[in-house]
Specification:
alpha+beta, single chain, globular
């Protein structure tokens, strides 16, 4: 397969990043803490804005906005994955594979596309059966989006079939 990535300086991207063999590594709060540290650390060196994020046991989804003259999300993901892998493997006698080699990205095209991906991210824990409402999932930007007035806290009770049927995993 000849996969080509889209490189848009200042672009807005949706990502799906999956653990190696879908291991449920992020059921461990310590590993989620490492992921948070990685994002904070890398964003200081290579800035980007996180519009939305959800971390599930075996994968995560997020939307990033890159700086105006920067299209290099790949280096950011490489650094984030490396940071988390080093932290996790620091406590193991043998190295553990943490991530799938690749990730899926989509260059967000317009406001409607952005909103659909925001909804997909925030509904994902419900879709997978972890919670009955997006607000119940602690590893998501949904609560922040509610605070910012982007969603009502009961959003997700009657979700549009278009969002439920979206598949980015």
């Amino acid at each position: 397969m000849d996969y080509r990535r889209v490189w848009q300086p200042g672009g807005c991207y949706f990502f799906t990043v999956v653990t190696h063999r879908r291991q449920p590594l992020f059921i461990q709060k310590e590993y989620i803490h490492y992921l948070r540290e990685a994002f904070l650390h890398i964003r200081k060196k290579r800035p980007f804005i996180i519009d939305a994020i959800v971390v599930l046991p075996d994968h995560l989804h997020c939307i990033w906005r890159l700086p105006r003259n920067d299209a290099d999300y790949a280096i950011r993901w490489r650094l984030i994955k490396h940071f988390v892998s080093r932290r996790i493997n620091k406590n193991h006698a043998t190295k553990v594979k943490i991530w799938q080699k690749r990730y899926w990205e989509h260059c967000v095209q317009d406001e409607n596309d952005w909103q659909n991906h925001m909804d997909y991210i925030h509904y994902n824990p419900v879709k997978h059966g972890y919670v009955s409402s997006p607000l119940e999932w602690p590893y998501s930007s949904f609560a922040r989006a509610v605070e910012n007035g982007h969603y009502n806290k009961d959003w997700g009770d009657n979700i549009d079939d278009e969002i439920i049927q979206m598949e980015f995993e």
